[in-house]
TrEMBL record:
Protein name as annotated: Sodium-dependent dicarboxylate transporter SdcS
Alphabetic keyword roster: Membrane, Transmembrane, Transmembrane helix
GO molecular function: organic anion transmembrane transporter activity
Transmembrane segments: 21-42, 48-78, 90-111, 135-166, 178-206, 226-249, 270-292, 298-319, 326-344, 356-379, 386-405, 417-438, 450-468
Lipid bilayer topology: Multi-pass membrane protein
Subcellular location: Membrane
GO (cellular component) term, any one: plasma membrane
Similarity comment: Belongs to the SLC13A/DASS transporter (TC 2.A.47) family. DIT1 subfamily. Belongs to the SLC13A/DASS transporter (TC 2.A.47) family. NADC subfamily.
Originating organism: Okeania hirsuta
Amino acid sequence: MENIRHLRSWLRISRQPQYRWFWFVAAALIYVSILLFPIAGIEKEAKGALAVFGVTAFLWATNTLPVAVTGLMVLFLIPLSGSMSATETYAYFGNKAVFFVLGAFILASPIQRSGLSTRLALTVVSRFGNTQNTLIASILILSAVMSFVISSYAVTAMLFPVVIEVIQAAGARPGGRFGLAAFLALGWGCGIGGIATLLGGARAPLALGVLRSTTNGEYDVSFVEWFIWSIPLVVLLLTVAYFILLQIGKGTVVSLPNALKFLKIRSKSLGGISPREIGTLVLVAGIVLLWIFRGTAWGLDTIAFFGVMCSFIFGLASWQEVEEDVNWGIFLMYGSAIALSAVLRDTGAAQALAEILLGSWINSGFICFVAMVLIITILTEGMSNAAAVAVLMPVGLALAAKYGIDPRAMTLGITLPSGLAFLLPVSTPVMAIIIGSGYVSPAEAFKRGLLLKLVGTLIFLAMAKFYWPLFGLGV
């Protein structure tokens, strides 16, 4: 135990700005060591790709640099290593996944800025929050449904002030069970709902971009297929989460009449629904319908940009607001991750890495699938969801090819469990936000989230084994 405490203390000190040089030296040593270490049967180009992969995984996992800066480093290192030319590397920024995410993020701006999201939140919570149990349920379900069409961390940020004002008006205090249950409902709802569609976060479009690139466009997953293959996990996990939250909040008494009175005052202060809100609602509903019915024919990215074009033409979006709302740096990560997956595939490095990591003890496709699911569920707690997906996708697809697994199944097997990040604030901005509320301690988040994560992983594996084959997807 003493050694563990010393290690934790050293790690905490080493994260201070004046000691960042240590992590850069470690990254450089990883790069040079892989280049110099003899690996039988691996060509120079593949070894260079593995070196870039090792540095990238280390930097993303340790958060030594922002993910966008690490992305820029990838774009520098790939040509430097001789694994792929600069022209080929930069071309991967033209991947459809990058532009789909860009369009979806821009469309989220008018939803927030028009007040539509706030009005929806207040309406649902005030109408269905008549008892403590239904209030918790309304927060959980509302956050999940909103995360179907808006990135989960954006939904958390939007609903955060609503939830904190409601529980404060109800008389809940930090450290109490009701506040803990309410904020866990917000975080869990956003996290679970974010895996249901391609719009809940960055990881799904990124994974599909890697899938298309790796299979040369032979395999893809439509908007509807993703929803069909993921929705049982979402519904069952929301049900489990609700019963866990009921146990957490059991035995506490708060003043709901005060909270409902506050919500009515806030709702009236918004005034009548504005033309911008109506227009945004109609536009978003139309774009989602196009994604469902014409997504395969027209392309999800093309439809997203059609929505962006309409939002500016009809005055629903403002470029100044979009500039402030969209995380532009994240696109550097997407493009670099797709380029990295391509160089790992083309040089044979992904196949070699798969053999090194898992090839010696895996003897069936399903065991391979389970191993990748377990790895991503652990990895996603220590690094961002998108970064974890970017690191594992090339390896997973190489293993899928070796063991005859449908690459779409492996894509879902890596991406969906990556959204089950309920334990640590470093895992996702959603958890960082709710832990920062003061109502959820890191210890409570870990303890309560661990049960949900374990149950979610078991539900997912059962769904992949027994449900997916009914809809043409086998593991």
